[in-house]
Write a structure and sequence with these properties.
alpha/beta, single chain, Spore Coat Polysaccharide Biosynthesis Protein SpsA, Chain A, two-stranded antiparallel sheet
């Protein structure tokens, strides 16, 4: 890890539909966004930047001494917001960038390192992310838990909020509580909200036309697959907690 050189950019917006003001919600006395910044620093990032269009978030980030970059308010995704940051701050195209979601306050630092390392070790990979096995059948049917299916090369085949793959015989006519994954459990992977890419690919992403598929699922990574690019999906080296999607999720962390 000593030779691993990467930056972390954390997109954070105030206007979440399910949880307005989420980055500023307090967890153990600190705003959520501060916990995310601390995880990125623990991972050894050369530079950690919070990207936001909201002055309230910017002021809070400055107050605890972290770097913040104000962006436009018309971004459709965190990745396009990061593209603006990389362009305005003049990062070289070969810079390894890890996008850590602002609602992952307890993502393990090891997982941030893992994504950066995967890109460092594989020049042919334009984008990398992580997953983790699902062991609770209710998560498979929870639209807030994004699922991913991969091929034998650890490349993403598809991401969805729907239960993929759909186990026809096991799921038919059963309630979630009655489902026993058994031998099927290895097929179900929860996508973890973290991405790694080089700065040049982020700029390329911004120039890719948006797709109906990504809008339908509300998953920005589907734009990459639609346009024929590879996303490498490794299983996380350390089990990550669930991110914070709703106030109920936050209550569980207090």
């Amino acid at each position: 890890m000593d030779n691993l050189d990467f930056i972390v950019v954390i997109p954070a917006r105030f206007g979440s539909t399910r949880f307005p003001g989420k980055p500023l919600a307090l967890i153990k006395g600190k705003p959520m966004i501060q916990h995310v910044v601390e995880r990125a620093n623990e991972a050894g990032a050369k530079r950690v930047i919070v990207a936001t269009d909201d002055k309230r978030i910017a002021e809070a980030v400055s107050a605890f001494g972290a770097e913040v970059c104000l962006t436009r308010n018309d971004h459709e995704s965190g990745t396009t917001r990061i593209a603006e940051v990389l362009s305005s701050l003049g990062f070289a195209d070969d810079t390894i960038v890890v996008n850590v979601q602002g609602d992952e306050p307890f993502i393990p630092a090891l997982n941030i390192q893992q994504v950066a390392q995967n890109l460092h070790d594989n020049n042919q990979i334009p984008m990398a992310t992580l997953s983790y096995p699902i062991d609770d059948a209710s998560d498979i049917f929870n639209p807030n838990v994004v699922k991913v299916v991969t091929n034998s090369n650890k490349h993403a085949m598809y991401f969805s909020r729907a239960p993929i793959p759909y186990a026809r015989d096991e799921f038919a006519g059963k309630n979630n509580d009655d489902i026993n994954l058994g031998d099927l459990s290895s097929l179900y992977l929860r996508h973890i909200g973290i991405y790694g890419y080089r700065a040049g690919f982020v700029k390329q992403y911004e120039s890719m036309p948006a797709t109906q598929l990504e809008r339908t699922e509300s998953l920005e990574q589907l734009r990459v697959l639609w346009h024929g690019h590879v996303i490498h999906v490794d299983v996380a080296a350390q089990a990550p907690p669930h991110g914070v999607d709703t106030p109920e999720d936050l209550a569980k962390l207090q």
